[in-house]
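Q: Convert this sequence to structure tokens.
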Amino acid sequence: MLAFALIILSSVMNLVEGTLIKRYNGKHTKGGFIFTAMVSLFSMLFFLLTDTGGLDFRAEMIPYGIVSGIFYFSASFLTFVALGCGPFALSMLIISYSCVFSIAYGIFFLKDEISIFTVMGIILIFVSLFLNRSEKKAEEKKASLKWLICIGVSFFGNGMLGVLQKMQQIKFNNEITNEYMVVTLSFSALTLFIIGFIKDRKYVGYIFRYGSIYSSVAGISNGATNFLLLTVNTLLPLSIVAPVRAGTKIVLAFIMSVAIFKEKFLKRQVAGVIVGAIALILLNI
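A:
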């Protein structure tokens, strides 16, 4: 039960991060590169401050961190853009689809054992995701090509991040998790700051003035999300963690979208949330 509680908490923290990014983007659309760099920076500081065993940056870990950093900065920036030009619930829902990467990696490469209830739960997660798809008639605005591209790349980047996190945990026996995340987030922050100072130099003061609170809390939420997921990866098979987290995010994103962003849903999408909840029960049996 501890593992599932941590998954729920990580999902809450992830949606807090998404909500803050959406809020900032809705009020202040300038300087996306620097803003997301600040999110990466505060997330990295989270891992520095939570380390208790002394940092050990092994040379063989650095390539994992750099590749992860590439996926991280591209996914984080494009998520920022997608949340600014598209609906919150649908954006978070599609990003939840990235769990397919971890599920496939767990089943086909790690040979995770799965029960009939697990199979049923995973199937229902995808049924839930299908039911929660958008419909142009139900949207006030059609999804733009810009949003589709951004959310697509973010989907791929988030999926690869989940796989890379598990890969490095296996290779290094969970001994340098914080170090791995520090390298990943430092590379992401540095890259985004460089691009940001080239493209958005004139907005630096504006971004620090209006974006510091949003980015610091979003960054801490991001760090907590990754920390909790890395912990859960040591307690449950990856093929279980990924769909449970996806199902949890479906339910929570639905609630937050209605309560905070006043987004409206079709009956089919409400049914999808219910199916997601049933899937969570099956995955806990």
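The radius of gyration is 18 Å.
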